[in-house]
UniProtKB/TrEMBL annotation:
GO cellular component terms, A-Z: cytosol; endoplasmic reticulum; signal recognition particle, endoplasmic reticulum targeting
Domain topic, free-text comment: The NG domain, also named G domain, is a special guanosine triphosphatase (GTPase) domain, which binds GTP and forms a guanosine 5'-triphosphate (GTP)-dependent complex with a homologous NG domain in the SRP receptor subunit srp101. The two NG domains undergo cooperative rearrangements upon their assembly, which culminate in the reciprocal activation of the GTPase activity of one another. SRP receptor compaction upon binding with cargo-loaded SRP and GTPase rearrangement drive SRP-mediated cotranslational protein translocation into the ER. The M domain binds the 7SL RNA and the signal sequence of presecretory proteins.
Assembly and interaction partners: Fungal signal recognition particle consists of a 7S RNA molecule (scR1) and at least six protein subunits: srp72, srp68, srp54, sec65, srp21 and srp14.
Family the UniProt entry places it in: Belongs to the GTP-binding SRP family. SRP54 subfamily.
Organism: Komagataella pastoris (Yeast)
Reactions catalysed according to its record: GTP + H2O = GDP + phosphate + H(+)
Subcellular location: Cytoplasm; Endoplasmic reticulum
Domain of life: Eukaryota
Domain SRP54-type proteins GTP-binding: 96-291
Record keywords: Cytoplasm, Endoplasmic reticulum, GTP-binding, Hydrolase, Nucleotide-binding, Ribonucleoprotein, RNA-binding, Signal recognition particle
UniProt signal peptide: none
Name by which UniProt lists this protein: Signal recognition particle 54 kDa protein
Job of this protein: Signal-recognition-particle (SRP) assembly has a crucial role in targeting secretory proteins to the rough endoplasmic reticulum (ER) membrane. SRP is required for the cotranslational protein translocation for ER import and preferentially recognizes strongly hydrophobic signal sequences. It is involved in targeting the nascent chain-ribosome (RNC) complex to the ER and is proposed to participate in the arrest of nascent chain elongation during membrane targeting. SRP54 binds to the signal sequence of presecretory protein when they emerge from the ribosomes.
Location of this fragment in the whole protein: 6 to 445 of 518
The keyword Plastid is annotated on this UniProt entry: no
Length: 440
């Protein structure tokens, strides 16, 4: 898709005159590419108008047309999927938050329940899971296995066949025990499709969820719109989780579902394992849809995106590089696409570390490093890492909290130390030997 859009834009620059006709043709090409990626046809038509208007609005004499068009296409697509952080559900501590998961069989609900449970547990919530899938044989065993592995309390029944009763009983039991988050897994199939939606309505009435989440497979095609609308009507979900983002799917169906239900995406799942779970980023999602990694022109745009740099630049100028800075940089890299290439932009041997392994392995390693820093306290993050050396028990705690090993924590600390040293050297060079700070 990305290559086709890029080609379309490229044709514009080849023609001497960029007139309405040329732009029209380019828009047609882009729209065809979107349609082929399973983006809904009505949505494509709307996009086309928006893009055309935006190009008109931003076009000024002397402006680089190719860049402008790339930027407008990218921005309009991001606008479709991005949401305001404030729109997202925030569970409250010291009260019961019931989260109900809905979605078709195979979408990844059960797997995602555990990921979400672990996500909240790591943030200090008391979390339990309830199995409401009484349709599929083995559904309870699957949830039980996942929950046990992740050390999450669970509730379910081998004998009760009424999903409304099981979910109600489970929620009540956890509520009594003052659980703060109760995640309710549901069935994704019924003898008759309409019955599934009715079942969701009944469960919803019984357990009164504070938040309902639709789990959507990224590889869903043109049926995305009708399907997600049916779930929206029966269970009025307030957020979406897109799974299987690791697959080579086109992703356009998911894009259509987001637009059709006008619902924010909270998380994405990028693999079968518990750690393959991250907060959604609109820019990241669209970059993947467009296959930005392959395209130099759009890469430039991504690099010029205003990714949050935190205090890193300021700190670096002062000759510092904290663990927090390290975390910011890794997070930015994760948002930007092809890792083995991007990691090379990081100083301190990270490039070599990541360049020798495959894309998947590099991504895995980077993510584990991020989990490690996610498990650190604010004080630890703001530090230069020395307090880990003074109190090695901190490393054990972080390793345990992030599901990694002490060796891996040490590696993160080592990387950060190397970068901190570089920051100091660079500052000393700037200020000149013998200048202030030159003797540090
Ligand atoms: P459910 O029927 O909606 O509960 O779906 P499951 O949670 O049972 O998942 C169906 C299949 O998809 C299982 O084999 C999962 O391991 C797999 N799966 C779930 N999430 C992901 C993901 O993000 N990526 C990949 N590759 N597979 C996933
Ligand atoms: Mg399931």
């Amino acid at each position: 898709l990305g290559r086709r859009i890029n080609n379309a834009v490229g044709n514009v620059t080849k023609s001497n005159v960029v007139d309405a006709d040329v732009i029209s043709n380019m828009l047609k090409e882009i729209c065809n590419a979107l349609l082929e990626s399973d983006v809904n046809i009505k949505l494509v038509a709307q996009l086309r108008e928006k893009i055309r208007k935006q190009i008109d609005a931003e076009d000024k004499p002397g402006i680089n047309k190719k860049k402008l068009i790339q930027k407008v296409v990218f921005d309009e697509l991001v606008k479709l999927v991005d949401c305001n952080e404030a729109e997202l559900f925030k569970p409250k501590k010291k009260q019961t938050n019931v989260i109900m998961m809905v979605g078709l069989q195979g979408a990844g609900k059960t797997t995602t329940c555990t990921k979400l449970a672990v996500y909240y547990q790591r943030r200090g919530f008391k979390v339990g899971m309830v199995c409401g899938d009484t349709f599929r044989a083995g559904a309870f065993d699957q949830l039980k296995q996942n929950a046990t592995k992740a050390k999450i309390p669970y509730y379910g029944s081998y004998t009760e066949t009424d999903p409304v009763k099981v979910t109600f009983d489970g929620v009540e039991e956890f509520r009594k025990e003052k659980f703060e988050i109760i995640i309710v897994d549901t069935s994704g199939r019924h003898r008759q499709e309409e019955d599934l939606f009715e079942e969701m309505v009944q469960i919803g009435k019984a357990i009164k969820p504070n938040q309902t989440i639709m789990v959507l497979d990224a590889s869903i095609g043109q049926s995305a719109e009708s399907q997600s609308k049916a779930f929206k009507e029966s269970s009025d979900f307030g957020a979406i989780i897109i799974t299987k983002m690791d697959s080579n799917s086109k992703g356009g169906g998911a894009l259509s579902a987001i637009a059709a239900t006008n619902t924010p995406v909270a998380f994405i799942a990028t693999g079968e394992h518990i750690q393959n779970f991250e907060k959604f980023s609109g820019r990241g999602f669209i970059s993947k849809l467009l296959g930005i990694g392959d395209i130099e022109g759009l890469m430039e745009h991504v690099q010029s995106m205003n990714l949050d740099q935190g205090d890193t630049i300021k700190n670096f100028k002062e000759g510092k590089f904290t663990l927090q800075d390290f975390q910011t940089q890794l997070n930015n890299i994760m948002k930007m696409g092809p890792l083995s290439k991007l990691a090379q932009m990081l100083p301190g041997g990270m490039g070599q570390l990541m360049g020798q392994v495959g894309e998947e392995e590099a991504s895995k390693r980077l993510k584990r490093m991020i989990y490690i820093m996610d498990s650190m306290t604010k004080q630890e993050l703001a530090s230069d890492g020395r307090l880990f050396i003074d109190q090695p028990s901190r490393m054990v705690r972080v390793a345990r909290g992030s599901g990694t090993s002490v060796t891996e924590v040490e590696l993160v600390l080592l990387q950060q130390k190397m970068m901190a040293r570089m920051a100091l050297q660079s500052k000393n060079m700037m200020s000149g030997a013998g200048g202030p700070g030159g003797m540090a």
